[in-house]
Amino acid sequence: MSKYAEYKRYTRSRAGNVAYFAFLFLMGAFSVLPLVYCVCTAFKPLDELLVFPPRFFVHRPTVENFTELPSLLEKLQVPLSRYLFNSVFIAVVTTVLHIFAASMAAYAFSKSKIKGLGIFFLVVQFSLLYNGTTLSIPQYLIFSQLHIINTFWVYILPAIPSSMGAFLMKQYMDSGIPDSLLEAAKIDGAGVFRIYWRIVMPITKPAWMTLLLFAFQGIWQTGPSAGTIFSEELKTLPYVMSSIAAGGTARAGSAMAATVILMIPPILVYFITQSNVMETMSSAGMKD
Amino acid sequence: MRQMKKEPEKTRVRRLSGKGEMAAFYLMLAPFALLFFLFTVLPVLTSAGLGFFTYDMISMPKWNGAQNFLRMVVGDEVFPKTVTNTLKFAAVTGPVSFFLSFLLAWFINEFKPLGRSALAFLFYAPALAGNAFFVWNVAFSGDSYGYVNSAMLSLGLIDEPVNWFRNVQYNTGILIAVQLWVSLGVAFLANIAGLQNVNPEMYEAGALDGIRTRWHELWYITLPGMKNILLFGAVMQIQATFSIGSVITSLAGYPSVDNSVDTIVSHLSDVGITRYEMGYAAAISVFLFAMMAVTRVAVGKMLDFLGR
User: How far is CA B132 from the centre of its chain?
Assistant: First the structure.
């Protein structure tokens, strides 16, 4: 353990402690209760969904909502496994490509002396502030010029250069990677790519692990932009979700069950990435 | 590089930071730059340009000068209201979620890894739950089946169910709470990662320099050390708060009662997607961008004061 972790910093007063835990508890309840509600509702039998006065927790839990799903999905033109494969495939490929593109660009933004990059970076940053609503038409035109309408590329390509990733990575590198370290590596004969792989990526692990979660989640939860995918076998899970939810109140339980199932992959990715963020946190202290 | 091995060190360093290094950096930048130009720069420029045309998505765009921009001021009764509403929402949810996302990350940072993951999960849950904000619709449902109504009825606080989202007295407040719930995620996790960006040696040096309270440490060491990540969080928060709209529309409907909670973005998608007035929608986008850009510059200036 480092010296930093050993020496005890200031302690709080008792009142401070009470306020601190009360605040954390209230905020935690406020943010997690709706999720708890979703899970409870997914296990509610139909009569409990409609009971008055409404109940928050489930009294006689049932898995009916889940077991009903396969029969609801029978009407789909292609098997569910196909949508599942599409979703997983697209999410994984896009996330990996996005992290590489964003971190390599951020490395150039942060540490290279290419002229004009400062302005380019401002463009990247400010592009985040342009609302996406009116962008779908120009994007559609570009898709059709590239002849990639109705292919997986429609999902993958536009998500790779997402400005948020390059922005986050650049901000992290600016203060996280001292220039002296890069100079030392250069003197040892390491080239740009080697430094990127051996020094920049390990140091920025907390940042790109966080980015991995953002990217995976974003792709997992959104469908393609309108009119770009029309083959059934190229569609993803959010589409299946919306077709179940279209069933109305009688399907409310099943829709909730499907929502809960769809939440599982992002939650898994959350725990995998965050445990890595925390791991680097403790090892970062071991340097000295 | 192999051949260079025998050269004296100085030349080697100069060589490496010369042409070869530049080329390597260009290569690293290329994939992002190329795709960014194709899928962001080109669409944004096209869209912004459309602001000067009338375009119904069927016939060719027609040049319209500054008419669309004039219309925002004099020809559209709803638009000024949406600007006021957006500013109202942004003024509260922006700063509050920015501070909360930092405060919470900072608070849970002193827990052991297991407790920290669990607590972080609670605060990140809204983002993981996808479109689960519709549970607020159940909670604040206008009939007596809504949780809030049924609880308040049984406690005798109200005599008849309140239509929360259609009531101009309450809807803004409730929607601000919902929006806060939705918007904590990204900045919060970025801050958790960012807290490790602060060099531990700085804390030790600070302790030697006579920093004695938690708050001094926060102000003089933690915050300045995290300035870059805080700026990231601020930009994401500006983007999110000025783009408030879809969640509100799905809870309170569009148009809402007296346009009381309609925002620029909900108006924008009504104009563009429902009424096919793409030119006018593009002009509104440009206006919205200008508002956000000004805020971004102001916030950047404020962050410069950290640690002074």
Answer: 19
